[in-house]
Structures are given as C-alpha cells and as structure tokens.
Design brief:
By secondary structure, the chain is an alpha/beta fold.
C-alpha cells in the first residue's frame, strides 16, 4: 500500500454514497483512478441495472488509465449480470494495480474477481478503509449473509425519553428540520413499518415528502386485519404499495388494493416478525425502516433484529410515569445484558439533536 491509497479510497467512498437509495439491492460502489499521483478518472454506481462504478471511472480516464491504479470500494465483478464483467473492462484498459477496500461476498464474485485480475498480471491489494466500506455497505452485506433486510429503527423523543404525553399526544415532539430528515430517510427505504396501534392512532400516510429515490412499501403489523378501509393507508394502497402482515386472511383489505401477507403467529398470537423479515429478504428488500410504536420497536429490539437507530431528541420535558418511552417489549434484566451500540453521527438540527447509532456486530464493531 502507498500512503496516498487511503486518500483516494476516502474519495471513492464519498462517490459511492451518491448511489444510496438508487442502486439497491446492489452495493454502493465508488471508484477512483490515479496515475502519477493525480486523479485521472472517477465514477460511482449510479442506478440499479446500469453501468458499475469502474466502467464510469474508466470512461472518464480514457487512455490515461493505462498503467494507473484503480481504487474501488468493493471487489470488481467478474460475471455477467445486468452488465458485463468489470474485470474485462479493467484488463482491456491496461490498469496496472487495483486496490479494493473489500472482497465482494456475492457468491458469483467472492474473490474470483481478484483472481481474474491477478491472472492477467494486475496487482490486487485489499484492505484500505475496509471498516468504513463495510459500514457503508452494511445493508448489502447483511442481505447476503442472512437473507434478511437491514433494519433501521426511528423515533423522536423528549429530553426525558418520552414519545408522547400521558394523554397520548405526540404532535409534534420534533421540529420541522428533524421531520424533513425523516422524510429523506423514508425516501431511500424499501419498506416503512408500523404497528396497528400507530396506524389507528395517527392515521399516517407513511410516504416520503417530497418523494425520494425509492418508493417504500408501507407495512402494517395487523394481527386481525383491523386497519380501517377509510384510513389513508388503505385509500392510497393502489398508488403506493401497502402490505398488511397478519395472521389471518383479510379479504376486504385485499379487495381495496393492499397486499395481505398471512404469517404464522408468534407465542403471543402476533405476526412472527422473523418470518416477515425472511419474506422481505426473499423479495430482496435491503432496508426496512421501523417507525413504531413502542410495542413494535420493543419486539424488534427484543429479537435483536435492529441494525441502526435514528433518534431525534427534542429539547422538551414531558414527565409523567405513565407517558410512553420509545422501546417497550421485554427489555433486559441488567445493564450488562444491554446490547452495545456505536454512535456514528451526532448532529444539531435547529435545536433538536439527531443521533445515528449502529449495532456493534462483528465485523462492524471494530
């Protein structure tokens, strides 16, 4: 490795981020081509099914790619998918050295891309900014490893950890800037999930406003198919995908345009969320946003399925012993039993504090 490899890889990671919400279930990938200490080409995967980052970077570099180093956030592909193998393009361009941050765990790549390049006489060196690259592509890597989507949990709360008053009033704890951030988050999700309690109490629309790069499917955990026909979710089900996860058939909701997914019940008679996540993974959903309420968030945390938390803390005090906190469920018996989280982001949003925290699972916990 050279001292400058990390500099170029940081740039590649920045480029890769521009594809978030547009390329899934493919990974985010950025590429930077360097020759004689200068960038001669760069690119990123811009849209699912379209050219990969390496192809864009090679096109930008042209003849300057010959003898250059390609810094790329993920191992180049070597198989025919929706696009031709990137390894072929790299070899044709005369690249002398490839520096991938990570080996691609996709079964049709998984080290074979690097082997193909080495067989062509190209030096391949892994590992620059590997942890940052793993965190950036954690949803892609989780889907590959477990067959389930990466689960985001979101809530807004007061300084004393309340999501509503004792009367149930919750509009609005967070400010407009925080709510805009939530809409941005929604706009890059495959699905947004709430429980029937939240659906009945708030009659939410659960869309991104303005629209984002993805249109998320609205998911309601509704054991008995109680979601009202005149709710916003049902009335817009023919325009925005709406999935009712239930334990019994719900013909009325199905006739109104909702997809009804009948799941086996858990021990409490509710739709089994692990079975739900398995099904969403089969559909190649990469990111699921769980917005609550507290009972639903508690179930996801109790099952240790949450990978990332987005918490908006407002400078307000609510009080009352019976005012709800964000996460219910069984909880833990001792502090030592609590899961470890990494605070990745702390941001001031016009007075609210936004915390983005990542569940510390290997290999993201380094």
């Amino acid at each position: 490795m050279t001292p400058d490899d990390e500099i170029w890889m940081r740039r590649a990671l920045q480029l890769a981020e521009q594809g978030r919400g547009r390329v899934e279930p493919n990974p985010l990938v950025g590429a930077v081509i360097v020759r004689d200490g200068k960038i001669v080409g760069e690119g990123w995967h811009q849209q699912y099914g379209q050219a990969h980052a390496e192809v864009h970077a090679l096109a930008a570099a042209g003849d300057a790619a010959r003898g250059a180093t390609l810094n790329v956030t993920l191992e180049p592909c070597c198989h025919h998918g929706k696009t031709p193998p990137c390894t072929d393009a790299i070899i044709r361009a005369g690249i002398a050295r490839v520096v991938p941050a990570l080996e691609d765990q996709f079964p049709q790549v998984a080290g074979q891309g690097a082997a193909t390049l080495r067989q062509a006489g190209i030096a391949v060196e892994f590992g620059v900014c590997a942890l940052a690259a793993r965190r950036q592509n954690a949803p892609y890597l989780k889907l590959l490893a477990t067959g389930r989507p990466y689960v985001h949990a979101k809530w807004a709360m007061s300084l004393d950890g309340k999501i509503a008053t004792k009367t149930g009033d919750s509009k609005w704890i967070s400010n407009e800037t925080s709510r805009r951030r939530v809409h941005e988050l929604r706009g890059r999700m495959d699905g947004i999930l709430v429980g029937i309690g939240t659906a009945l109490a708030d009659d939410p629309l659960l869309t991104a406003r303005p629209a984002g790069s993805r249109t998320a499917c609205r998911v309601v955990l509704d054991s008995h198919g109680r979601l009202p026909i005149d709710s916003q979710l049902v009335r817009t089900a023919r325009q925005v995908p709406t999935l009712i996860a239930t334990t019994r058939e719900a013909a009325t909701l199905s006739a109104a345009g909702c997809e009804v997914l009948v799941l086996p019940p858990d021990d409490a008679g509710r739709p089994d969320i692990m079975k739900l996540l398995d099904e969403l993974g089969r559909r190649r959903w990469t990111n699921l946003l769980v917005e609550g309420g507290s009972a639903v968030l508690g179930r996801f945390f109790d099952c240790d399925t949450v990978d990332e938390a987005h918490v908006f803390v407002a400078p307000k005090l609510i009080g009352a012993v019976d005012a709800k906190s964000p996460v219910a469920g069984r909880g833990v018996e001792t502090i030592a039993d609590s899961a470890r989280w990494i605070t990745d982001t702390i941001e001031n949003l016009d007075g609210d504090v936004y915390l983005r925290c990542i569940r510390a699972r290997p290999p993201l916990a380094a």
